Amino acid sequence: xxxxxxxxxxxxxxxxxxxxxxxxxxxxxxxxxxxxxxxxxxxxxxxxxxxxxxxxxxxxxxxxxxxxxxxxxxxxxxxxxxxxxxxxxxxxxxxxxxxxxxxxxxxxxxxxxxxxxxxxxxxxxxxxxxxxxxxxxxxxxxxxxxxxxxxxxxxxxxxxxxxxxxxxxxxxxxxxxxxxxxxxxxxxxxxxxxxxxxxxxxxxxxxxxxxxxxxxxxxxxxxxxxxxxxxxxxxxxxxxxxxxxxxxxxxxxxxxxxxxxxxxxxxxxxxxxxxxxxxxxxxxxxxxxxxxxxxxxxxxxxxxxxxxxxxxxxxxxxxxxxxxxxxxxxxxxxxxxxxxxxxxxxxxxxx
Length: 351
Description:
This protein is of the alpha+beta class. Helices cover 26% and strands 32% of the residues. The chain contains 9 helices and 18 strands. The protein has helices spanning 48-56, 98-108, 113-126, 142-154, 172-189, 200-206, 224-229, 234-239, 326-331; strands at 8-19, 22-33, 37-41, 63-68, 71-72, 83-86, 160-164, 192-197, 209-214, 217-222, 244-248, 251-255, 260-263, 285-296, 300-307, 318-323, 337-342, 346-347. The strands form 4 sheets. The protein has a 6-stranded mixed beta sheet with strand order 6-7-8-3-9-10, sandwiched between helices. A hairpin with a 2-residue loop joins strand 9 (209-214) and strand 10. The longest helix has 18 residues, at 172-189. The radius of gyration is 25 Å and the shape is globular. Residues 267-278 have low confidence and may be disordered.
């Protein structure tokens, strides 16, 4: 009877990496499930790329272990690890055509020409590059270059695909389209992927699992829904999406903008004691404040409200997203008094 394949393709156990006196990765542990899309999310300098390069074998940890497919990788060079990496700048060969770029790794491995051609055509077809094989990287769009870089990695059939902020050089609209393509490709291939980004929307959209990093440490790990809706720390809350930290009755709460309903004061409704549209009985609690400003984002208005009562000793504005309509644009101008209904909140450490 054969042993079952390990549940986790990558296991990082108490990994530490120092650069002189600076600790880039600090006692980091994480298990990456086979076939999953796992994202390392955090600000610049938090150790994400260092950790990715440790998995790839470009750096050795000072202590701790990296296990790939059940085998300790200490001392195993990058070319002998079952990993493929896509760099932020793609690292394409500008003097080679798309076909030659795809063929490069296969040639190094001395794959015979017939098999090589078959693999190039199969990979190009899966990435929508089949009509571009004779072009050079400089003749490709940003999205096509990104797909070519991905193709160079996956054509070698690595067990683990490592990606270091591969969409950061694309404009916003193209980044969204390529992000959708990348997700489809990863799902179709079923390849275990470890992805590095500082973009919270990118992480939430792409990932099966997110590891939030802060100063070389693991702040929180979980599904996108878990880290967004149930963050354990104020850092994890703030880095995974818009966050309001509101003090109420001696407790500190995280309140996402979409968990808030804004309404005008009841006095603005002639003959009514309350705004019946709000159903305030369903809110957790109610606050009052004054609109500090509003920004239009097409699909929503983001309204900044300065609360009447200080939060955590300050009077910093809380923000709320409301669905955009003509009346909404007029109702929430700067200086307008509002009632703030908090519909959902998570008790959390003080920000």
